[in-house]
Amino acid sequence: MQNIKTLILSQLIVIITFPITLWASPCEEANSLVTQAYYLSYYPAQQKRLLQHALERCPNHAQAHNNLGVLLENENNDTKALYHYRQTLKFCPECFQAWLGLGDVYYKQNQLPLSLEAYLHACTRHSRARQRVAKLLRNNRYRTVEAGTVLNSLLYDKKRLQKLHQMATQCYHQFKSFSLGDTKALLETAVRFRNLHFKTGSDDLRLVSNAQLNDIATALINRQAKTIHIHGHADTQPWTTFTQQKSDELNRQLSRERAESVKYALARHGISITRMKTYGYGSSRPLEPGTSDATLAKNRRVEIEVIE
Length: 308
Description:
Layout (H helix, E strand, L loop, with lengths): L1 H16 L1 H5 L2 H13 L5 H14 L4 H13 L3 H14 L4 H13 L3 H10 L5 H11 L6 E2 L12 H18 L4 H5 L5 E4 L16 H14 L3 E7 L10 H25 L7 E5 L12 H7 L1 E7 L1
Parallel strand pairs: 1-2, 3-4
Antiparallel strand pairs: 2-5, 3-5
Helix pairs in contact: 3-4, 4-5, 5-6, 5-7, 6-7, 7-8, 8-9, 8-10, 12-13
């Protein structure tokens, strides 16, 4: 009898000392590990080990995925951070912290359309998301492709753009953090390219533009665009020895010829030439007024629009 009492007492001591191991489900144990990791903010390596262990116990633990994504983002391990943020949203689509994390990583990678989409999911829940949305919407920055910026086919996806417009409108009505007019452009399917480089005063595309042209063609082929409009725009700089009126005429001609050059380049990358139409506006549709070098560079551009 004494031996039985001793055995029962020893079992009770084990249960009291290690309650999680004996009673908790794997995901309840993961909850405890995530909580422990939270209190180790000064020891990120230990936090990471605990969170990884939590995911071994409970692979669909949204909070563990999100917190691990934050740690990996702080280490500049963006690929793994994106994976864990996406896993968070797979199990918890309304977890705005993961949307915010996605937005931050995409912003850092210059994937501005995807960054805007992620921030809009968190727009009504976090002030930094609203600040970034306002910054990206201003002057349609998210749909302007410059050197180092990544083209994303989202800009030609009408259904996704309509969803972004709905989210932006909802966020505007709640917080008035940006201009309502800026949200209207979300329904457009035109993208500005300022990294298609031509020789000065010529319609000859430089070789450096080939990679971007290939990306554009891939995006257009994936969207199966029916009609593609290519708009050429020039700056207001006068041509040497010509009057302003003659310079305006030459700039219109040059912008049209550059649009044609882009059309034939895209045809070489697999786009049917019969689906493309070109237009040249010269300097008649500037994005910004002024004659500074920065302003002139912004106004020199090619815009490619998809017409379904």
